[in-house]
Each structure stands twice: as C-alpha cells, then as structure tokens.
Amino acid sequence: MTIIDAAISLRLSRRSLLGLTGALAAASTPSLAAQPTEQPLPGGTLKIAFYRDNTTLVSLDPFQVYWLEHRVILRNVVESLTDQDPSTGEIIPWLATAWEISEDGLAYTFQLREDVTFSNGTPFTAEAVRIAFDSNKEFIKSVPAVFGRTYLAGYDRAELLGPHRIRLHLSEPNAGFLQATSTTNLAILAPESYRLTARERSLGALIGTGPFVLESYTPEVGIKLTRREDYAWPSAAARNRGKAYLEKIEVRYVAEENVRNGQFLQGQVDIVWPRNPFTEVELQLFQSRQAQIFSRSLPGPALNLYPNTKEGRILSDPKVRAALQKAIDRKTFARGVFSADFPAVQGPYDTTTPFFRAQADKLAYDPAGAKRLLDEAGWRVGAGGWRYKDGRRLTLVRPLQGAETPGDVLIQDQLRQVGIELKLQILVAGEFLTFVAAGRYDLHSSYMTRADPVILQTILDPRHTNGSALSVNAYPPEVRPRVEALFDEGLRQTSAAERTKAYGALQDLLIDENVAFPIYERLWQAAALRRVKGFQWTSEGFALFNDIWLARS
User: pLDDT tens, 155-204?
Assistant: First the structure.
C-alpha cells in the first residue's frame, strides 16, 4: 500500500502539480494563508444575489447538481471526505483524516473523523459513507446521464474496516477519484436522506454534516440557511475552526443583471455574485462605492468553441480550422468585453486547473496567417470581402440560446476581418437542443467546473457523454482515437508526473489539431460590501460561509 496522509499528499502535489502553486495563488483572492486583521463578530444574516436558478434541472441533490450557484450553497450544507487546497490543488483532510491508495490504484482506504454528526444527530460513520456511495451508484442505473456519474467512475463497492475506517474499491483505475472525494458531488448525506426519493432530495430534503442547515428552497426564488450550533469539524482549508459566525444566509436568484446590481448598490444584499464576469463599467461603479471585488478563474475547461468536423462541414478541413484559430484576438476580447486587467485565455483549460499547460504562443492573433491558410484551402475573397469556394460562402453557424452577447458579436467581427462569416443562430431552449443534436452547427460551446482535468471528458469524450453531438463531432476520424487514448492515460496513471505528461499532451493535441478554440478564461467574480469579512475561494470557486462574518457599521 502507498500511504498518502496529509503530509505526503502535500509533498507529492507540491512537486508535480503542473508547477502550479504560483499561478493558482495569483488567480485567487485572497490567498489561503491570509488571515483576517479584525476580530470576527458573531451574528447577522448574509444576503446574496445570485444569477438565475436552474430551470432545466430543479435540484439541490449533490450527486445530480452541476449548477454552480447550487454547488456554492451545497458546499456549506454537505461535506466531503477530503478537500482541495485552492492555492496548490493539493488534497487535504476533511471528514477523512488520512487515506491510503493501493499500488494498482483500485483501492482507497479512508480513516474517518470520530467526532462528526449529521444535522439530525445521526453519527457520521463508515456505514454512512458506504450508503452514500452505494446509493449514488444505484442512482446511475436509473439516470445514466446524471452529472455525478463521472465523479464516481470505476466505483465498485465499499468494504467496512471498522466504525470509522472504510475501503472503497474501484473496478478500473480512476486517477481523479481522490480529487472527486473533495467535491460537492460526492458529498456525504445522512442515511435518512437516501431513504427519500430523488425528487425530495432535489427540493431540499438534505441532511448533511455542514456548518449550515438548509431551512428552505423555493425554486427560482431563493434559499435560506440556518447556522448549526454544534458544528466543530471544518475542512483543513477553513480559518474558523468552530461554528459559523453568521446566524443565517439568504440567497436570492435574480436573472436580470441590472436588478441584481441595483439591489447591491442600494445595500439590499451584501454580495452580488453573477455568472459572467463584471464589465469595466460595473467594476468602476462598484469600486466607486468602495465595494470589494473577489476574483478566481474557475477550474476546468476555459470557455471554448468546439467545431463540427463531420465530413462535408467546412471545419472538417484542418487548414480552415487552423485559420480560425489564428483569426481570434483573445487579448482584445478580454479587454474589450470584460476589463483592462482581465486575463487573456491561455489554453483549453483555465489556469486554476491542475496539470494546466499554457498554449498562449499557439493562440497568438495572426490575421495574415489566417488569410494565407484560407487561400491555401481554396477559399478566395469575393463580394463584400467574404470568402467563397465553388460558389459557396464561408459561413459558420453558432447556435445560441436567448440573445447574443457583446462577446459573440466581437468574435463575429474578428472573423469577418479575414473573410469568415459567423452566423449567430438565436434559438429557444427546445429548438437549441434539437439543432445541436442534429449536428446543424459549426461551432458550439459547453463548460463544466471541477478542479481536475478529467472534467473535460464530460464534454469531449463520446464514451463519457452518451455520444453527445458535441463530443462525437469535435474530432476528425484520425484524431479521436488519440484524444481518447490520452484521456485513458490520464485516468490510469496515479503518479502526478505521469498525469502531468498525459494531460499536457492532451492540451497540445487539442490546440495543434484545432479541435478546441479557447475564447476566454472563465473568471468568476463577486462584489461584496465593505462589511463582509473573511471571504475566501474554495478550489472550485465556491466559498466557505463559516469563515465569513459581518462587521458592524
């Protein structure tokens, strides 16, 4: 057995997690090591205005949830076996104090804390962990596409070694499994929660070990949390080692940006937390009111456009794909759409993703090179400055739900400079899904958030996406086996050095073959009133509410 307790895990990760420490620390404010300079005050209600609620999947069930705003809340109600240091990517203790991984990567043994209880008073034990993992495995049978499926990949069974010691067996290697145990998706609920229906859990019947208890959830309206008075077992990443300072948390879902911002500026909410980054105008307005701005790149894929390379589609031609890559001015996009200090995207992953490898040189803006490649591919400049071949205009279709954004229009204009027409097809939800499934698009985007590169498989590996159109269409026939082989290698290798090699090669391949077009770094931002103290990011861009307190004005 290879013993990986907290200290060994820290040393392994520090040596080989992508040479990442500096990049991650720079991407997250404030740092994990930062300490509050004022004495925390107990009491008060924190009010947060989030982006809209998820109307496609109305659920708070941790194993089902992919919605970022829901996962922020869940991180403070339900807890996980491990946590992940947001500055280094290292796996650190939480409900488990130490762990061992077998040499073949098929057995994970966890020593559990003995002082933890669920909010209903039920003790946290190895049996509770077994029920959680087995219940999630059973749920996959009824809902194969459930989001938590990839987090649980390879899980076979649990072996109880004592009241607070458990061994989780995998049927196949999954090098991302340890990190998966740090996520909200594999958080541990009380056994009583799994006796309820999935719908009941989705609507808030969750019994966790966290510092807050879910008081109510009203879909599309908001969530209320109440402090748990006997809480005393935070993650190793938390500053506050006892119960939360805040008494309550009230969350509002506000779809309209202007309404959210107005509530914040009027002091009706303490934190405004949108899905998209703030614009330069918003930043200046908030900062003129002395607001705090917190920023962190979300781990996982950057906002990428993925091509339809099926035979007969324009982007099946590698020269056209290469031209498209060169025609995108990412630095101008970051400054023009967001703000002067917004980081330009550097590759298919965001910089906070473990094993990130920068591809910035390959993504340099080169319109002259783009024009040359289009000439070589037989697309000549014709009427209106557009490119034509055999009487056909070089038109690429990108479907959008709702309305186009300034960023969409900017990319459209950049491509026009080299003669490529980008048609933004505005569709309603039902039409959008049908349009994409039928492969009628040329460029499509999708993203997920997880602090491990395995998350890209949920988008780009047809074997892990139930054959979604995006994953099937993204590669020419000769490229797909190479991508799948690198995904497999990243899962098989338990050595951080070997995973660095595999995922580095994957990132090279995606850019070299131009089957991912990075557009922008998914920077997540929140603005807070000055009275909000102790805010810090988790590894996945959430927040530990038990660290936050409110200063008295």
Answer: 999 999 999 999 999 999 999 999 999 999 999 999 999 999 999 999 99
Instruction: Locate all alpha helices (DSSP H) within 53-162, ordered by sequence.
Output: 68-74, 126-142
Residue 526 β-bridge partners: 294
Q: Which residues contact 462 (CB under 8 A, 6 or more apart)?
A: 468, 471, 472, 480
Distance CA 176, CA 443 (A): 29
Task: Supply the Cα-derived Rg of the chain in whole angstroms.
Answer: 24
Which residues is 214 bridged to in the sheet?
225
Going by their DSSP bridges, the two strands 532-533 and 549-550 should be labelled as antiparallel
CA–CA gap between residue 169 and residue 17 (Å, rounded): 25
> Which pTM was predicted?
0.89
The residue among 545, 1, 553 whose CA lies nearest residue 243 is 545
Residue 115 burial by CB count (10 A; 0-12/13-18/19+): exposed, middle or buried? exposed
Is 298 within 8 Å of 275 (Cβ atoms)? no
* DSSP per-residue letters across 410-422: HHHHHHHTTT-EE
**Backbone CA torsion sign across 9, 12, 17, 20:** positive
* Phi, psi dihedrals of residue 437, rounded to the nearest 5°: -60, -30
97 in Cβ contact with 235 (< 8 Å): no
**Residue ranges with strand state E in 89-238:** 91-93, 96-101, 107-112, 155-162, 165-170, 212-218, 222-227
Sorted by sequence, the CB contacts under 8 Å of residue 361 that are 6+ apart come out as none
Give the tens place of pLDDT for each residue, 496-552. Answer: 899 999 999 999 999 999 999 999 999 999 999 999 999 999 999 999 999 999 998
Task: Report the distance separating Cα 497 and Cα 275, nearest Å.
Answer: 34
Q: How far apart are CA 73 and CA 53, in angstroms?
A: 12
Helix 406-416 / helix 318-327 crossing angle, nearest 10 deg: 120
Q: What is the DSSP letter of 188?
A: B
Q: What is the dihedral of CA 179, 184, 185, 187, to 10 degrees?
A: 90
The shares of helix, strand and coil residues in the chain, as percent rounded to the nearest 5, are 35, 20, 45
What are the start-end ranges of the H helices in 181-242?
Answer: 191-194, 198-202
Determine the Cα–Cα distance for residues 369 and 324; give it in Å rounded to an integer. 10
Q: Rounded to 5 degrees, what are φ and ψ at 169?
A: -100, 135
